[in-house]
Amino acid sequence: MSLPFNLKFQYSADTARRDLVAGATVAAIAIPQAMAYALIAGVDPRFGLYSAIVVTIVASIFGSSSHLINGPTNAISLLIFGALASFDERFDSYQALFLLGIIVGVIQTLIAVFKLGDLTRYVSESVILGFMAGAGLLVGIGQVGNFLGAAKKGTGDQSALVQLWETLTKGGPFSPNAVLIGAGTIVLALLLKRVIAKYKLPQMDMLVALVVASLVAAFFHWSLPGADGKSLISVVGKVPAALPSFHIPEINFAWITRLLSGALAISFLGLLEALAVAKSISTYTRQPLDYNRQCLAEGVANLVGGFFQSLPGSGSLTRSSINYQAGAITRLSGIYSGIIVALVVLLFGPYARFIPKAALAGLLFITAARLIDWKRLGYALRSSRFDAALVLITAFSAIFISVDLSILIGVGLSIILFVPRASKLTSRELIVTKERVVRERLPDDPAANSVLIYDLEGELFFGAAPDLDHLLETIKEKALLAETSYIVLRLRRTRNADVVSVEHLERFLRESASHGITVLLAGVRPDLAKILSNVRFDRWLPSDRIFLEEEKQYSATLKAVRYAYALLKQSKDQSESISFPKAEEELYYLV
Q: How far is residue 569's CA from residue 557's CA, in Å, rounded to a whole number?
């Protein structure tokens, strides 16, 4: 295991300061979020805080991304709530929660062991852009109630827009004090950001803005409880002063079967969510990611968390973005965040409870705006209909369905749209000019009727079988119409042949031979040659009909063309008046 920072450079005091500031900023956001996500899952808030400590630290130690922050998330909490819905007693539900975390950790670790994490690299960048855009809007939408000081209304099974409408219409009167605190936090954070950029100061804009907003609210007694025990503006609430302890949950095999489906959903969604967040941030940092290593980190973190009374977690979009924006350099920022949460929970719980929710909402508004890369988003929307469709459908799925399903929808759509594109097989006809140059046939060129040369390009898997069959049939019909005896089929730019495409190729070769047409296969790649050998082509196809791929791009094709014309010279019919090379060593040039 490597250390959380690259040993090729010294971990300087400046880097440590930046990681520490980022970790402290993330911790300030993690405390209220962890408590809220635990309530969404239907369990005690302290289990969410324990997750923000244990899962965050362990994932940062083993992870690949320098900015990914793990812990409780909204999507995972909703899945946990569904998995624990059948457990009535509180003790049973808590024991089942810890067991669920262990099962999730085992599944994710196995995914890493079998190196399935690399499959996520095939998630389109357009899906990530759409995910970020939709998630950014959702982060902002979800904080409108806190910003206005209104009570949150609606249920978890409703879309974010429906919940927003319920909050605005039924959440009670708005609080001018909350709006003032939230707006002041935004203005202060933006001003500090400009000052920090101008004077190259430590990136403490969000943390300082949050502390100042909390002090202002306390100074005017807006966040302090009045005679009725309520404060004028909503605050985070009570933070229990206790740290997680080692605990072996009750092992009930009947529970395992009840939890298995939920554990599978949490495992796959958690990995996809974490890797999507890590990948999206890496587009800015250009940091190379080890997907299997990150899968292992997710699994180990949830496995350890299950033994320390933690809520299963994943990569947090909000906290990871704040970590990056706050200036984090290495994975130690995540470790610092977990340690600071632990210290706050243990030592400063009574004071942390007075953080205004409106101030947090203001910071999250800024985060939401920065999540959307408008330049790259516009670039993707303009580039092609394929990319535009992926971006828009993924983004709208996040807003109108759910942020977790939006990733699955985007990935599924990208596969659906990619398969027809991958199955496209194209061909171009080549000719030999009088100057002995082999090039693509132009519309004004006379048709070749002695040797037909075709260059095929594309995937030779089952999805391309209809195109392959149509191309080969067209070539055969043209050869019969022109009474051509020789065909050179260039296959160097074809890939990933399977049994279906090989069957089509065999049928073409046999039918051509039955009509007296000799087909030469040029530029046959090693993988295709191996398949042809496995299916016993050598038993009926002469070896001089196959020209294997060579180092020089067109060497095999030129040899096949020369050989075809050599055979043609030996035949009785020479209808083309072409000046052929006198020796085999003389080359045709292919353009």
A: 18
Cα 270 to Cα 126, 127, 466, 530: the distances in Å are: 20, 17, 39, 40
Amino acid letter, 300: V
**How far is CA 313 from each of CA 56, 142, 270, 519, 543, rounded to the nearest angstrom?**
9, 20, 7, 60, 59
Q: How far apart are the first and last CA of the chain?
A: 51
Residues 6+ apart with CB under 8 A from 300: 58, 59, 62, 105, 109
- Cβ–Cβ < 8 Å for 553, 492: yes
Spatial separation of the C-alpha atoms in residues 115 and 99, rounded to whole Å: 25
Task: Give CA–CA dist 62/291, Å, rounded.
Answer: 12
Measured distance CA(233)–CA(353) in Å, rounded: 12
Cα separation, 488 vs 588, in Å, equals 14
H-helix or E-strand spanning residue 219 = helix 205-219
* Nearest in space to 313 (alpha carbons), one of 322, 324, 300: 300
- Please report, in tens digits, the pLDDT of each residue of the chain (591 residues total): 444 444 445 788 889 999 999 999 898 888 878 877 887 787 887 899 999 999 999 999 999 999 999 999 877 887 888 788 777 666 678 889 999 999 999 999 999 998 876 666 666 778 878 877 887 788 788 889 989 998 878 765 677 788 889 989 988 889 999 999 999 999 999 999 899 888 877 667 877 888 899 899 989 989 888 767 778 888 876 666 778 889 988 877 788 888 888 888 888 888 988 988 898 888 888 888 888 899 999 999 999 999 999 999 999 988 998 899 888 999 999 999 999 999 988 887 677 677 888 988 888 788 778 778 788 888 888 878 888 988 999 889 888 887 657 777 887 887 787 777 766 788 999 988 887 788 888 888 888 778 999 999 998 887 788 889 999 999 999 999 988 889 999 999 998 888 888 999 999 999 999 999 999 999 999 999 999 999 999 999 999 999 998 887 778 999 999 899 888 888 755 544 444 444 444 556 665
Residue type, 569: K
Q: Is the dihedral of CA 237, 238, 242, 246 positive or negative?
A: negative
Residue 163 has, within 13 A of its CA and on its CB side, a CA count of: 23
Angle, nearest 10°, between helix axes 45-62 and 332-347?
Answer: 150
Tell the residue number behind the tokens 């030996």, with chain if given.
Answer: 570
Instruction: Tell me the domains of the chain and their CATH numbers.
Output: 13-417 (no CATH), 426-590 (3.30.750.24)
